UniProtKB/TrEMBL annotation:
<dbReference type="GO" id="GO:0004140">
    <property type="term" value="F:dephospho-CoA kinase activity"/>
</dbReference>
<keyword id="KW-0547">Nucleotide-binding</keyword>
<protein>
    <recommendedName>
        <fullName>Dephospho-CoA kinase</fullName>
        <ecNumber>2.7.1.24</ecNumber>
    </recommendedName>
</protein>
<comment type="function">
    <text>Catalyzes the phosphorylation of the 3'-hydroxyl group of dephosphocoenzyme A to form coenzyme A.</text>
</comment>
<keyword id="KW-0067">ATP-binding</keyword>
<keyword id="KW-0963">Cytoplasm</keyword>
<dbReference type="GO" id="GO:0005737">
    <property type="term" value="C:cytoplasm"/>
</dbReference>
<dbReference type="InterPro" id="IPR027417">
    <property type="entry name" value="P-loop_NTPase"/>
</dbReference>
<feature type="binding site">
    <location>
        <begin position="10"/>
        <end position="15"/>
    </location>
    <ligand>
        <name>ATP</name>
    </ligand>
</feature>
<comment type="similarity">
    <text>Belongs to the CoaE family.</text>
</comment>
<keyword id="KW-0173">Coenzyme A biosynthesis</keyword>
<dbReference type="GO" id="GO:0015937">
    <property type="term" value="P:coenzyme A biosynthetic process"/>
</dbReference>
<dbReference type="Pfam" id="PF01121">
    <property type="entry name" value="CoaE"/>
</dbReference>
<comment type="pathway">
    <text>Cofactor biosynthesis; coenzyme A biosynthesis; CoA from (R)-pantothenate: step 5/5.</text>
</comment>
<keyword id="KW-0418">Kinase</keyword>
<dbReference type="InterPro" id="IPR001977">
    <property type="entry name" value="Depp_CoAkinase"/>
</dbReference>
<keyword id="KW-0808">Transferase</keyword>
Length: 199
């Protein structure tokens, strides 16, 4: 069984995924990490990005300047579409390979764009980490030390809260503290184990 875990920026996806992994030994595949792998130096995707947007997309060590790329693509929707068409199939291949290596009772696919990228087609259930948008904004601005306008642009590009919740089989409400989130994760894990035991 593959379970998708999604939520907007700053919702607490990583905190939830870490609990599944640390407390219950669940194999976690992080789409964000895969998105970094596909643009590593020497990978074709990085060369395509530099061809399109120029050398400013590279840091001094030859790795991708993620901040410069983010600024460029979130300012122009057609550039973001081009980038997504380049990267999504590559990321999907990396994800599938990793999911197939899982040995835990079920695997967790963590992706901020689970619904938007169609990655939810790989999953049998979807968990949404839900949080009020004001909290999302405040957490992300504080965590990433970025301007509020940039966070709002990223939030606009992600599925809206209602849209995400429409795809949810399970919801983790993360508007309290870490202990409250952990308790919800533990309850969900117990439920999934029961589901797996059914013939």
């Amino acid at each position: 069984m593959i379970i998708g875990l999604t939520g907007g920026i700053g919702s607490g996806k990583t905190a939830a995924a870490n609990r599944f992994a640390a407390a219950h030994g669940i194999h976690v595949v992080d789409a964000d990490q895969k998105s970094r792998v596909v643009v590593e130096p020497g990978r074709p995707a990085l060369a395509h990005i530099v061809d399109r947007f120029g050398e400013a997309m590279l840091l001094d060590d030859g790795t991708l300047n993620r901040a410069a790329l983010r600024e460029t693509v979130f300012a122009a929707p057609e550039q973001r579409q081009w980038l997504e068409q380049l990267l999504h199939p590559l990321i999907r291949d990396e994800i599938i390979t990793d999911l197939h290596s899982a040995t835990s009772p079920y695997a967790l696919l963590v992706s901020p764009l689970l619904v938007e990228s169609g990655q939810n087609s790989l999953t049998s259930r979807v968990i949404v980490v839900d949080v009020p948008e004001t909290m999302q904004l405040a957490r992300t601005v504080q965590r990433d030390a970025v301007p509020e306008a940039q966070v709002r642009a990223i939030m606009q590009a992600q599925a809206q809260r209602e849209e995400r919740l429409r795809h949810a089989h399970d919801v983790l409400t993360n508007d309290s503290d870490l202990a409250a989130l952990h308790a919800q994760v533990d309850a969900l894990h117990a439920r999934y184990m029961q589901l797996l035991e059914r013939p």
